[in-house]
Amino acid sequence: MKRFIYDTLIKWKESRDRKPLIIEGIRQCGKTWILKNFGEAEFKDVAYFNFEYDNRLEKIFDGDLNTSRIIKDLSIIRNKTIQPGITLLILDEIQICPRAITSLKYFCENLSELHIATAGSLLGVAIAQMGKNVSFPVGKVQMLKMHPLNFPEFLLAKDEELLYDYLNNLSLDEDVSAVFIGKLEEVYHEYLITGGMPEVVKSWINERNIENVESIQTGILDNYEKDFVKYASVSEFPKLSLIWNAIPAQLAKDNQKFIFSQVKQGLRARDLEDSLLWLISAGLIYKVEKIERPYIPVSTYSDITFFVTIQEC
C-alpha cells in the first residue's frame, strides 16, 4: 500500500541536517507499518521497540539521558548492537514515556549520525501533560503528521493507477471529463465507506464485505474510547464520551455548526470546552471554523463561535 509520506522519510534519511523524527497520528492510521516497511527497505538493520508492550523500556529512560548508555541498554534488550549509519532505531508509542521524548534532544545534539524515528498517538495530550521534570525538545526534532489514506492513495490501493495519473495531470482550470465522472463518483463513495483507515481499506478491497468493514471500524472506535480512560482524568472521561458520541449525530443534521447544548441537556460551552480541546489535541477530531471572507490570513476572518467538528475516523 503506497503512502505518500514515504517520500518524506527518504528525504529525512538523506538529509545532512537530520534530526530525530516524530510521526504523530491517530491509532491505526499506519504509523508503525510505514516505519517498519521503510526500515526494512532502506536500512541494513531495524531496531524496533514499543513502549506499550515492553515495560522495561521506560526504566531505561528513568535515569540519566546519556545517549551512549541508552543505546547500549537497548542493544542488550534486543541482543544485537545498534549501529549509527546502519540501524534504524524505532521507538513506538513514545507518548507513554515522556522521558524518552525529552531524550531526543540529546540524540540530536550528541548522536546525530543515528537514524532514530519515533511514533505516537495522542501526542498532543501527552506533551500538554508533561511535568516539570520533563520537557519537549523544541527545535531538536522533526515532526511529521500522518493521516488515514487520502483519496489519491486510495486510488493507488485499488490499482486505479490510470485514473490516478489522469487526475494528477489535470490542470486547475481543466474540467474532469464527463466520461470519468461516474467512475470517480463510484470510487469516491467506496472511499467514504472506508474512511481511509488502512486496515479497513485492505478489507474492503480484498473482500468487499460491508459487515467486515463496519466490524473493523467499530473496533477502531472502541479503542479510541479506551484511550479516554487511559489518558484522561476520571472527571474528564464522561464529558469526552459525550462529545465523541454527539459528533456523528450533529454531523447528520443540517445545523451546519456544533452546538454544545445539544451534547447533553443542562451542559453549556463552559462545561465542555476543555474536553473538546482535549479531543482536538489528541488528533481525534478537527475543529473547522466558519470563514466570513476567503482572504489571507484566514484566521483573521474566522468566526470562533461558529464551527463544525469532524471525527478523524
What does this structure look like?
This protein is of the alpha/beta class and about 325 residues long. The protein has three domains: about 140 residues, P-loop containing nucleotide triphosphate hydrolases (Rossmann fold, 3-Layer(aba) Sandwich); about 80 residues, no CATH class; about 80 residues, Arc Repressor Mutant, subunit A (Orthogonal Bundle). Helix content is about 50%, strand content about 15%. It has 13 helices and seven strands. It has a five-stranded parallel β-sheet, with helices on one face. Strands 6-7 form a two-stranded antiparallel ribbon. β3, α5 and β4 form a beta-alpha-beta unit. α10 packs antiparallel against α11 and α12 packs across α13. The radius of gyration is 22 Å and the shape is globular. The protein starts with a helix and ends with a strand. About 30% of the residues are buried. The mean pLDDT is about 90.
State which percent range the strand residues make up: 5-15%
Give the class from helix and strand content and strand pairing: alpha/beta
Tally of discrete structural domains: 3
- Low-pLDDT runs of 5+ residues are none
- The H-and-E topology, N to C, reads as HEHEHHEHEHEHHHHHHHEE
Between the first and last Cα atoms, what is the distance in angstroms? 19 Å
Any idea of the CATH topology of the largest domain?
Answer: Rossmann fold
Question: Outline, from the CA principal axes?
Answer: globular
Number of strands: 7
